[in-house]
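From the pipeline queue, job 12 of 40. The input is one protein chain; the requested action is below.

Action: predict structure.
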Amino acid sequence: MTSLDSKYKFLLDSIGQTIQDARQNALRVVNTELVKANWEIGRHIIEYEQNGNERAEYGTDLLSRLSYDLKLRFGKGFGRRNILDMRRFYLAYPIWQTVSARLSWSHYILLLSIGDEVARKFYENQTIHENWSIRELDRQINSSLFERLALSRDKKGVLQLSEKGNISNDPAEAIKDPYVLDFLKIPQSKRVTEKVLEQKIIENLQHFLLELGKGFAFVARQFKISIANKHFYIDLVFYHRILKCFVLIDLKIKSVQHSDIGQMNLYLNYFKKEENVSGDNEPIGIILSAEKDEIFVEYATGGISNKIFVSKYQLYLPDKNQLVEQVKAILNR
């Protein structure tokens, strides 16, 4: 490439980046204005109700009349359901300053589907922290992420989770139990090998990273280590950018044995000596298994200085109603 061609390519790339930035900025401005307009519409409806003693709940004439007249004046986008959502939006966020410009109207529609305010605040904060798309937010709500994280905390921890989201500054907070792998599309009744399970995860790596949570970066599969002329293979290796450490994952399709924990301990000792570099914290080991006995794991990991966690995985979405009731019990203590 000649010097002239190189300069022209730089010019073209610079203009292209400017156009892309302008379009993104325009979309953000449009989104903010849309959210603000819908919030204002909701405010007008509530103020009308308060002044006229009329309740515009779903099923009353006010929403139908508003929808009809607004569609005549402004076209599509003002269906009865949309008008109801605008009203609900204002009721959930009566102070405009609490509305985030980083979330779209579609994000807020999903958030409004969550009746519990504590859970809704968690998903709102977590969406902002992890920059979830609409699809990712929907997936996390359906997989009961808040309830799964909350069950490992006390009342104070649950409320903190709601207020701040799940910020993984501690290894124990970065680990879930259970992990929901419904995206692998493996029937619950089907028996699979560890090799097949690993391959399915690799084929759905983007979904698996979402389930792991913010900060995980994929490093390798079947990571080979050699000790005293013996070869070992770690199923999956990740690096956690926030915790600044390697995360080793061993997959088990049956109950965890004490030998599995001993093997993970060996892997972690190896990584500390051979793979860690300056600035890396001690590695974390996760044994992901189909079954888990809490008492057995407690005794098997007792006295081990390395950070070893045993978590269950399940191939189907959890019973959300049951999880919700368990979290309510924690909050009512």
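Job complete. The longest helix spans residues 3-52.
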